[in-house]
Specification:
This protein has 229 residues and is of the alpha/beta class. The chain is built from eight helices and six strands, in the order ααααβααβββββαα. Helix 1 packs antiparallel against helix 2, helix 1 packs antiparallel against helix 4 and helix 3 runs antiparallel to helix 4.
Length: 229
């Protein structure tokens, strides 16, 4: 198997894991009837699912049945979300979407193998216009780094100016041995983009290379139109 193929498979498994986690948060928001946050989270799930579906269908046609079901569940939720039918949405997510994502992830592992076994995952924490290390509260920084250590992951903080596309390198900041230090690393396995606002050209290019955990979904005027579409 080529290195590019291994990277692609690893990225797919990352996306599927992220979708599972996002769905857990989504059902909590739905049960609390938090419409705006629910719409935002669901939009992220839809965006991530679209990427996963495209990649899975290219790998093996045997995934087609599973990806069609995933699309169907998302369409059902979008229809009920438009009606603000929280009870029906919770039912679909809890008894259909969530179990299906778990099965899809396991099917992926059964077909191509566990891409995360014994691998340290590199996670880039990114903002288009400033290094998150400079503006995130200390408590949140410690929580991010601490959780990464528990999950056998390494966290790198960087911004647009730190990206070298020609050599596929990033000049980042990490917390190591109780100190912050600068390092140069290959592109990370996944990027957690912090905050919203205007997207830089660098972020647009990175999104074509690396899976992102969050998606810009528009404002309160454009978002409903995108959901309906």
């Amino acid at each position: 198997m080529t290195k590019d193929k291994e990277k692609q498979l690893f990225q797919i498994q990352n996306i599927l894991d992220t979708l599972e986690e996002a769905t857990e948060h989504f059902i909590i928001l739905i049960k609390n009837k938090e419409l705006n946050q629910s719409v935002f989270m669901f939009s992220s799930i839809v965006e991530g699912s679209q990427v996963a579906i495209t990649m899975l269908n290219k790998i093996d046609e045997s995934f087609k049945k599973n990806t069609n079901k995933l699309e169907n569940y998302l369409f059902m939720i979008a229809s009920e979300l438009e009606k603000k039918n929280f009870i029906k949405i919770a039912e679909i997510v809890q008894f259909s979407l969530r179990p299906h994502l778990v099965r899809l992830n396991q099917t992926f592992i059964d077909v191509v193998g566990n891409q995360k076994k014994d691998k340290v995952i590199s996670i880039g924490v990114f903002h288009s216009w400033a290094n998150p290390r400079k503006f995130l509260p200390d408590a949140r920084l410690k929580a991010i780094v601490g959780e990464a250590n528990k999950q056998n992951s390494q966290i790198y903080f960087f911004t647009s100016d730190d990206v070298d596309f020609e050599n596929e390198l990033i000049h980042a900041i990490i917390f190591h041995n109780d100190f912050w230090k600068s390092v140069t690393i290959p592109f990370p396995d996944v990027i957690d983009n912090i905050g919203g606002g205007r997207i830089s050209q660098t972020e647009r290019k990175l999104r074509r290379e690396i899976p992102f955990t969050s998606f810009h979904v528009g404002n309160k005027y454009t978002l409903p139109k995108r959901l309906i579409k």
